[in-house]
Automatic annotation (TrEMBL):
It comes from the Eukaryota. This is Gfo/Idh/MocA-like oxidoreductase N-terminal domain-containing protein. The lineage of its organism: Eukaryota, Sar, Stramenopiles, Ochrophyta, Bolidophyceae. It holds the Pfam family GFO_IDH_MocA. One of its GO terms (molecular function) is oxidoreductase activity. One of its GO terms (cellular component) is cytoplasm. It comes from Triparma laevis f. longispina. Residues 55-166 form the Gfo/Idh/MocA-like oxidoreductase N-terminal domain. Signal peptide: none annotated. One of its GO terms (biological process) is NADPH regeneration.
Length: 427
């Protein structure tokens, strides 16, 4: 709770979909996020005086009556003391893809924008928010191209605002511990990750799947970011080749890949010694069958002095009910079950991801820290996540160019910020 004379920031949530509200297609999402994550977290923060005014901005204002009813049912009627009152943009009769511009006029420098919209809209919205002096958190991938990422980083620096990427796997205690252990195990040898969602999610995402983005940007981004976080300063990705499987989505008239695999060559610095190579394989899919978890999430990582294996989907906690059947539960991500009628998910990493950002903003607004202080890995800053964007863009380029490999170009022998992508030329 903020006790300083600096008031807590107001928050504008841009995007009204599943992750923000849990509302999809006129009803609660049939995923593991029926009550949403972003809005629920913000309402909880307001109840703890961490944020002040809350606004929500979408494209189609005609959805807001249904969203309000949904949030009342899933939040106010479940958790005592949590109000879902918030300003909404555009009004309930208007469809306006640029409503965020009008919404921003009601906010001031030092406030916060949280962007959960289709991937191809992130850049324009984030840049507008940065130019308005807001601190900005964008869901992964922050943008789709290295050029756009560089532009946002430059503008954030000029405006003196904090811009971060919402990659909550960094707050997963298993992943965080794996990262810390990996630091002492030497250079990367091999990494294999897999992340999936059931094929019914294609219906949830059909408005943008294969149009504004793909499954690699959506899910591979998690483990790509984890790799960049773990290997920051000790290795860099230098070449990307992508492959894909197709058929299931196209049978549903959705023109996109079913699964995408990125093979990434990493270059280990090894101090003053000779550079060595490691290989990482990232696979994501949205055509998995329905199972005991909404999302399969796991990785195996072998380093010079050890190996790490994490199955995020199965934590040894299962629940079976007449209503929902058998499931492997993960309240470490989001604890929706109330305790004595109260929301008690504050320690969940889905919530902490936002709370850490809000706390950093408050510290900056109070003058106790600067945005540059968060380039140390404590947050996924726009300045420390360029390798991930380069990998994802190179993967998309590879798919679009007959699976050709793409090189990631740097300045200097140990430069860590990518400057360009080039199609690999074989000698």
């Amino acid at each position: 709770m903020s006790s300083s004379s600096t008031p807590p920031p107001s928050v504008l949530m841009v995007g009204t979909g599943e992750y923000t509200t849990g509302y999809v297609g006129g009803t609660a999402s049939n995923s593991d996020k029926g009550a949403g994550v972003v809005a629920l977290s913000m309402f909880d923060f307001r109840s703890r005086n961490k944020v002040s005014q809350i606004g929500m901005c979408g494209v189609n204002g005609k959805k807001f009556p249904g969203i309000r009813q949904h949030m009342t049912k899933m939040i106010e009627n479940v958790y005592s003391g949590l109000s879902t009152e918030c300003s909404t943009f555009p009004d309930d009769t208007t469809v306006d893809p640029l409503a965020y511009k009008s919404a921003l006029k009601t906010y001031k420098p030092g406030d916060v924008a949280i962007i959960f919209t289709p991937d191809d809209t992130h850049f324009d919205i984030a840049l507008e928010c940065i130019n308005a002096g807001l601190h900005v958190m964008v869901t992964k991938p922050i943008v789709k191209t290295l050029k756009d990422h560089q532009t946002l980083a430059k503008r954030a620096k000029e405006m003196g605002v904090l811009v971060g990427v919402e990659v909550h796997k960094r707050l997963d205690p298993f992943y965080a511990d794996a990262r810390d252990r990996a630091k002492s195990l030497g250079g990367l040898q091999y990494l294999a990750s897999y992340m999936s969602q059931p094929k019914h999610q294609l219906e949830t995402f059909k408005a943008w799947a294969g149009k504004s983005s793909d499954i690699s940007y959506y899910l591979n981004s998690h483990h790509v970011d984890f790799s960049e976080w773990v290997l920051h300063g000790t290795a860099r990705p230098v070449r990307v080749t992508a492959a894909a499987s197709t058929g299931v989505a196209k049978a549903r008239d959705i023109d996109t890949e079913d699964s995408i695999t990125l093979t990434v060559l990493w270059e280990n610095f090894n101090g003053d010694g000779p550079k060595t190579l490691g290989t990482a394989v990232y696979t994501s899919s949205w055509v998995a069958p329905k199972s005991d978890v909404h999302s399969q999430q796991r990785f195996f990582m072998m380093l010079e002095k050890g190996e790490i294996n994490v199955d995020q989907a199965h934590r040894g906690y299962t629940v079976s009910t007449d209503a929902s059947g058998f499931a492997s539960s993960n309240p470490l991500f989001m604890k929706y079950t109330p305790t004595n009628g109260k929301f008690s998910g504050q320690s969940s990493y889905g919530v902490k991801s936002f709370e850490n950002f809000i706390d950093a903003v408050q510290s900056i607004n109070e003058g106790n820290s600067t945005p540059d202080d968060y380039n140390d890995g404590s947050l996924a800053s726009v300045h420390t996540t360029m390798q991930g964007t380069a990998i994802l863009e190179a993967g998309r380029r590879s798919l679009d160019n007959d699976f050709a490999p793409y090189d990631i170009v740097y300045e200097g022998e140990k430069g860590i910020d990518p400057v360009d992508l080039r199609r690999h030329v074989f000698n």
